[in-house]
Structures are given as C-alpha cells and as structure tokens.
Amino acid sequence: MNQTNSVIPGNTPLHPEQAAWLNNVLPTLAPEQLLWLEGFISGLRAGQARPAATAAVPPSASPELTVLYGSESGNSESLADLTVKAAQSSGFRAKAVNMADSQVSRLKDIQNLLVIASTWGEGDPPETAAGFYADLMGDGAPRLDGTRFAVLGLGDTSYEHFCKVGKDFDSRLAALGAQRVLDRIDCDVDYDDDFARWHEAALKALSDLAAPAAEVATATAPAAETAPAAIQYSRKNPFPAALKERVLLNGKGSAKETLHLEFDLSGSGLNYQVGDALAVIPHNAGDVVEDFLQSTQLDPDSPVSIKEEAFTLRTALTSQLDITTLSLPVIKRYNEIAKDAKLEALLDPANKRDLQEYLYGREIIDLFHRFPAREITADALVGILRKLPPRLYSIASSPKAHPDEVHLTVGVVRYDAHGRERKGVCSTYLADRIAAGEQAEVFVTPNKQFKLPADNDTPIIMVGPGTGIAPFRAFIEERQAIGAAGRNWLFFGDQHYLTDFLYQSEWQSYLADGILTRLDVAFSRDQRQKIYVQDRMRENSAALYAWLQEGASFYVCGDASRMATDVDVALHDIVAQQGGLSKEAAADYVKQLKTDKRYLRDVY
Description:
Elements: E1 7-8, E2 12-13, H1 16-25, H2 31-45, E3 64-70, H3 75-89, E4 93-98, E5 112-118, H4 130-137, E6 148-154, H5 164-175, E7 179-180, E8 185-187, H6 192-209, H7 215-218, E9 239-248, E10 258-264, E11 277-281, H8 286-296, E12 303-306, E13 309-312, H9 313-320, H10 328-338, H11 341-346, H12 352-359, H13 364-370, H14 378-384, E14 391-394, E15 405-411, E16 414-417, E17 420-423, H15 425-432, E18 439-445, E19 460-463, H16 470-482, E20 488-494, H17 497-500, H18 504-513, E21 518-523, H19 533-539, H20 541-549, E22 553-558, H21 563-579, H22 583-595, E23 599-603
Parallel strand pairs: 3-4, 3-5, 5-6, 6-7, 6-8, 19-20, 19-22, 20-21, 22-23
Antiparallel strand pairs: 1-2, 9-10, 9-18, 10-15, 11-14, 11-18, 12-13, 16-17
C-alpha cells in the first residue's frame, strides 16, 4: 500500500490527521492486517463499505473481553449489557455471559474479564449464580494466572453484608492468580455514577494492557451527521407516567391493603415484557419530612447540594434522600457528628448483636431522638443520607392485553414499631400521595430470567401468594393474547377467602374459559390450622410431579424469607416422594430444573 497517495471514495485525498494516523499505525500491523486494511480502503473506493465513526478492525486485532454477571433483579445484567456496548466502542470483541450459563473451568481461557455481581439477602449470591459461586470458591477452581480482571459489586447498605458477593469474587480471583487491573468498587442502590466510573476505568486499564494492534480499534474517522436521538426513558431519566386508576383489591374487614394500579405509558416509547419489573421513584411523606426537620431544628429553606445539583433542604428530604432506612453506614456517619459515647459503644464490633437488635424496626428519626447531636448543619445532614432508591414491582399486565399501559399489584405497608407509626415509603406514596391523573416517575427494569417458556405448548405451574400473584396475572394475559396452548396451573394464597382473594373474578373467568387449567387456593386464616400454598402443593403432589415429568416450568413469586423457602422444601419433598428418589437424587432433579430454566423465582 502506498500510504502517501491513499484516498477515500471519490478520489479525495486523506485528511492530514488521517494520514498521520496511518503513518503511526502502519508500522505496528502484521502483514495480514496490512492486507485487510488495504482491502478495506479499496472497498471504500468502490463504494462497497462506508466509513463509520469508529474505524472497523480485523478480528485478529481486537482483544476479547468477557463481562460475567450474576443478577437477581436484572440490574447486574443491564449493567453488563451497557459495559459490553462501551467495550465494543473501545475496540473490544466483548460479550456478556450469565453465570448461570457458564462454568468456572472456562475462566482459565479468558484473558480479559470484568465481573458484575449482586449480593442478595444476607450476603448470598443471586440464585442463578449460586452454583457458579460455589464452584469458584471450591477446591476445584482452576488457576487463573493468565487472566486480567476487575469487579463491580452491587448491594444495599441497609443490609449487614453489603456487597459481600462482589468482595468474595474479587478476593477469590486474585487468590487464583488472576491480575487485578482496578480496585473493586462497591455500589449502593444509587449506583449510576459509581458504575460509570468503574467501567470507564476498567476498560482503560484493560486497553492499556492489550496488544498494540488493538489501537486500530480505537482510531476514529470523521463521524457522519446523525439525526437527534429520540428521548430514552431510563433509570437516569424516568418517565412521568400518569396514574389512570387505583383500585383496592381487598374486601371490607381485611387486615390488608392491596392496590391494583394502572399507569399510562402513552408516548414514552417504554417497552416491557411479562416477567419484567417497573421501578417507581417515590417521594417521602410530608409528615415524615416535617418530623425530620423538627428533630434537627434546621431551616427547611437551607440550600444544599446533591451531586452538584442545588435543592432546598425540604425538597431534598422529600424527593431526593432516603430519610427512613437505618443502617450501619448511616449510624457511623451520624456519630462522626454526634460523637455520642453510648452510640460509639453500640458500634463496637463486640456489640454486634446489640446493634442488630437496635436496628430492627427502627428508622433514622429514632437515631436522632435517642442520640441527639448537639449541632448539625443542613450540608452535614445531607452527607449522612443516601439517595432515595427506586422501588421495583413485578409487572401485573401484558402489553399485548393493555397497550400503552402498565399495571401493578402493591401491598401497602403500615405498622407500629417502638412507639411510632411507620409507613412504607413507596407503597404509601402510591396509596396516598398521588391522585388519578397525577404522575409518578417510572422506568422498566428487564428480568430476562423470569420469562414464559419459548414453546407456547409448555405447561406452567405458578405459585404466587399475596402480591406474588402480579407476574402470573401478566403471564395468563399474555398466554391468552397469543393463543398459547400450554396448560396453566395456579397456586394462590392469602389470609381470607372473602376479603383477600386478589383478582378473584378474573381467575374464575379464566377457569371457565379453559385458559386456566387448575386453580388451588390456600387461605391461612379461614380455619384453625393455617394452610399455605406449600400445603396445597403437597396435597396435589402426584399431579404436580406428573406435570414436571411432562416438561412443565415451575414459577414462584413472593416473599423470599419464608414462603419461597417453604415452597422449595415442598418441591424437593414432592420430587423425592413421587419419583421414588433419595434426598440427594431429588436435589439433583431440582437442580437440573434450574439449569434447564424450568424452575424460576422472582422473590423479594
């Protein structure tokens, strides 16, 4: 190739900057890469290729990158996809890999590895990543001396074991000989800025270590003009959705307050699939904010700054900051101001049990009352608090049945604890603080794992007590809309038949139409001995096992702490009993269901 006379289509000479770039790059290229580049420019002359904002690269010149993720609610998966797109723009041949679909033995063949791992519950890995996590921590994990890596942990500082899984991955990869190229970053629920900082630094660190030929990938050519992009509504830019309807689902006399809510998505461009979640950004209740201000004796009009954005203190406490969740980090930051000896003693690691007892059922306002600070400024108060996180709700509608709408099933939280009335921030926001026609800020959180079977003939078994019914209402609407032939079996439970049978008329209509094949209900308080959904499963164990043997997918949605565990135990027992299997063989059977993505959970 004659680099001094190279031209682009139309016999236009190269721009001086392009020629300088070629002069710098050409000496670094292998012969086959020179041939490829010459062919590419010849193609441009012939009109067979078009220049892009980023120069194309022969595959051999682009370093490979694997973005490995473990996700429970879909956040890690979404961030993995964003990282892959950024990596591809930086010249990597990048791909996202779910831990559920990978094996630890494959890590030894990966040179560039980024890990995004969520921590679930009390320091546990996401369910879909549990097997991979156990294998990595086990003695059979391979040496990784040729691997370069960085880890991003996702967690919630209101839990004791904040980002434990990310920390475990980070230390274990290093112990196996992998080279850490960037210190781990641990993210709270407001993770956007930390994620951006992490993936930019991680990609730069890996790029600097990649082969010189990879520099071809990042060289830029003049960018063509593009039309302005349509508005993209997301976590950083939520959509203001108008509330169309709010219906109380419980009957008179119920101890519960469960709402059906319908939001208008017209004009948003937001798309969702059944199984996804809708995130709602709430506002704190006015009386809670007022109590906060009175307790601190601060001027509500004091100017404060949050991530370089200006607010009054009242506005910040209402719409920007979490003013309820009491956690260890909040207590530590607060005591840097309060300097209370009793609080300092409570923070002593030797008094861990006492601290956990104090945290249970209390909120930040209790901290102010029990350990008052002599003096606190508005800026110092803001520095103590974290950003108000969105709340995720399983979507209760099919977009095919309700175009331009999204429905939610929300249990409203109100209770008394330690002599004070408490209220769920988002559930009471949706119940009390927005009226029909008013808007709430929302965005869709995809859940690629919790989906209907690809084969519409596959039977499904759904276990969803209480508000866990939400995604299964969406599932049945979807299957009806597409004419799916697969059988559908629902287990539903709540307290009382007369007051708590959520969506009763809909389920009975589906039964009558044959869309719902079976319905088994458990109302725990209608008889002396409490009956739950797992009890109904056991009563129908032969049929349930037969459905599984015929290829049915098994779904669970609802409370993770008790219900989902009890259902899992019942499932293992049913498989062992009906299949004539040992405890170990039954565990293998259930594990295979998970591997085959036939046992899926959406728990919280």
